[in-house]
Design brief:
The complex is a heterodimer. By secondary structure, chain A is of the alpha+beta class. Chain A is built from eleven helices and twelve strands. Helix content of chain A is about 30%, strand content about 25%. The relative contact order of chain A is 0.15. In chain B, helix 5 packs parallel to helix 6. Classes of the chains: A alpha+beta, B alpha/beta. At the A-B interface, strand 4, strand 5, strand 11, strand 12 and helix 9 of A face strand 4 and strand 13 of B.
Chain lengths: ~350, ~280
């Protein structure tokens, strides 16, 4: 299918059409932050900047019910209590509109863990299947952006179904996946002129050129392991961390969770919620032992997982999409780029294993 | 394992029997309510399962009955945290959730034709029990089998119902020890690593399998090294806080290895390859 053109004036018409029978999540301003919320009449999408929180909730809600359970007494034998459990998979048809390439690419990091040859997380996999990404290519990088250093770019279509590129008066609209093609069959979209296509090509080149110079993160995999026992290094780079976990909650690739039960009377539910590896409780064992007892150990695991363990397990890809939110929104300005750079550049103290 | 099943959904099981092993350890014998699934249930010695008390949560325990004895699945639970406290209130007939089998298992195939030395401390005897019974049920596959099992006191010895058989069988050697003298105790007194050195097992064509509290493991490894055991002749099983049990939720990793799927069983040689984060 050839590329389409969406005029700025036709944006709400297309969003309205996409929202027929689906939820469409768009970035909107809310209490001073830009976050993804369901589109409705009158919604004003903010398409001029990266949203503060990524659209992670679309496929991986911060809280979701995994199953319901209920106990019931046997009227013939009151000492006998039966248990029933019911799986509760919920996968509404969804379009995530106006996320950035880093946001869509974040889920490709999830895919290698949540839906594999040996394991399939049905909650994740079914929502992944029911969710499409209409992604907006970036034109102006922020100072915290580094997607080009983790194998991506500001115009990367990996993980998206449709890619929008800003051109005069609107956007060039290109289908990236088969599923994306179906979204382009809409009256609001016109066939793109050759001029619009040329403009989009130039815009993509300009966006890539506008990025800060890329650095090679691949050597970090070995260097971070080499620094595993160099706790002086980890104490230094984690010194200002306040263990708030904002970096993990705002990260498009952080996928760790916890599971808890809530019970009221004879009924209840088992719930999955985002968890953060920056918390002391994350690995705290019932005995009181904690394999990651300090924030230095925990930051080491977070950086190590993204730039060393994950690439090692999955043969290449880094578990970071370079969106820069963990840098931009960290209350004490911990900078993961700096930690990775220092891990690669500083000599390793060789005190040996304690 | 069926890959397309919901990996978080437990099977409902019924508690058949509860055994008070020690003042703080109870054993639960459970059967899956679905008779067909129970009949077809397959696992390997050393694999673990998650027990659920709905409304409180899930925790991981080794299945300490062997797959050669399938009348029930046995889990032994030391009273420690929230889930174990609730498990300790259960009675026969109560309903629990079971997600099993999870994780890897003891490499019993590669142990065939070898001498086996089990060294268990406290609740760490549970995973060893599975493999020991499995080997006794396949006795001709293995050469000499010896067991050193220690606990703090006679009251802290679990699996007392197994001990008369293990102590009197002609086809295995059993040494029991406690930390301090106690009235009526007729076996060894002394810390496990010291008693192990006294037993002086030869490392020749031998595999040592050990599990127990961290401090015991530490000194048992030193003792085994002193006896001449190579790193790949020593097998142990690890514990970590777990949630999903299937390698997703992100808390039980040591570097690239997830204890819930790549473990819990590791050789000492494998452990030495891992980053230092036990």
């Amino acid at each position: 299918m050839s590329a389409k053109y969406l005029a700025q004036g036709d944006l709400s018409a297309w969003l309205g059409a996409l929202a027929q029978g689906r939820r469409v999540l768009v970035p909107v301003r809310e209490n001073g932050a830009v976050v993804f919320r369901p589109y409705g009449p009158g919604t004003k999408p903010v398409l001029t900047r990266q949203a503060d929180s990524p659209p992670k909730e679309s496929v991986f809600p911060s809280t979701e019910r995994l199953m319901e359970f209920s106990y019931s007494k046997d009227a013939e034998n009151l000492g006998k209590v039966a248990l029933d459990i019911k799986e509760t998979v919920n996968a509404p048809a969804t379009v995530v509109f106006g996320g950035r390439p880093c946001d869509a690419r974040g889920f490709t990091v999830f895919d290698r863990v949540y839906d594999t040859k040996t394991i399939r997380d049905p909650y994740y996999a079914e929502r992944r299947a029911s969710t499409l990404f209409v992604t907006l290519a970036c034109d102006t990088p922020e100072t915290t952006c580094f997607c080009n250093s983790v194998g991506s770019s500001p115009v990367d279509a990996d993980g998206s179904d449709v890619l929008l590129t800003p051109v005069d008066g609107g956007w060039l609209v290109e289908a990236v996946s088969e599923r994306g093609k179906a979204l382009l069959d809409a009256p609001a979209l016109k066939d793109a002129t050759a001029a619009a296509q040329d403009q989009a090509k130039a815009a993509k080149e300009a966006a890539e050129a506008a990025m800060p110079p890329a650095w090679d993160a691949a050597p970090a995999a070995a260097k971070l392991l080499e620094k595993f026992d160099d706790m002086g290094f980890w104490d230094d780079v984690s010194a200002k961390c306040i263990s708030c976990g904002a970096c993990t909650y705002l990260c498009p690739t952080c996928y760790c969770f916890t599971v808890t039960d809530e019970r009221s009377g004879m009924k209840g539910e088992r719930i999955r919620t985002w968890d953060t590896c920056m918390s002391f409780q994350f690995t705290l064992e019932a005995s009181g032992h904690n394999p990651r007892p300090t924030k230095a150990h925990r930051l080491k695991n977070r950086v190590g997982h993204k730039f060393s363990y994950y690439p090692d397990i999955h043969k290449g890809p880094i578990a970071c999409c370079g969106c820069g939110r963990c840098i931009k929104l960290c209350p004490v300005s911990v900078d993961i780029r700096e930690i990775v750079r220092l891990a690669m550049e500083l000599p390793t103290a060789t005190a040996g294993k304690p | 394992m069926t890959t397309m099943m919901n990996p978080y959904l437990p099977e409902i099981a019924t508690v058949l029997e509860v055994i008070q092993e020690t003042p703080n350890i109870k054993t639960f014998r459970v059967v899956l309510n679905n008779k067909d699934r129970m009949a077809k249930f397959k696992y390997e010695p050393g694999q673990v399962g998650q027990l659920s008390v709905f409304g409180v949560g899930e925790a991981t325990f080794v299945i300490n009955s062997p797959p050669t004895r399938m009348e029930y699945l046995q889990f032994s639970v030391m009273l420690t945290g929230e889930v174990t406290s609730m498990l300790h209130t259960l009675s026969p007939g109560d309903q629990v959730g079971v997600r099993a089998p999870l994780g890897n298992w003891f490499p019993y195939e590669s142990m065939k034709g070898k001498n086996i030395v089990f060294v268990g401390g406290g609740i760490g005897m549970a995973p060893l029990r599975t493999l020991l019974l499995f080997m006794l049920d396949n006795r001709k596959d293995y050469k000499n089998i010896s067991l050193l099992y220690g606990a703090r006191s006679p009251e802290d010895m679990a699996f007392k119902y197994d001990l008369p058989d293990w102590s009197t069988r002609k086809d295995m050697t059993t040494v029991l020890t406690i930390d301090r003298e106690a009235p009526g105790w007729e076996h060894k007194v002394g810390l496990i690593p010291n008693v192990l050195l006294e037993m002086n097992p030869s490392p020749k064509k031998t595999v040592a399998i050990t599990c127990g509290p961290p401090i015991m493991i530490k000194f048992t490894l030193q003792a085994l090294k002193k006896l001449g055991f190579e790193d790949d002749q020593i097998v142990t099983t690890l514990e970590k806080r777990m949630k999903c049990g299937v390698g997703i939720c992100g808390r039980c990793n040591i570097g690239t290895k997830y204890v819930c799927v790549d473990g819990p069983v590791f050789t000492y040689a494998q452990l030495k390859e891992l980053p230092n984060e036990l």
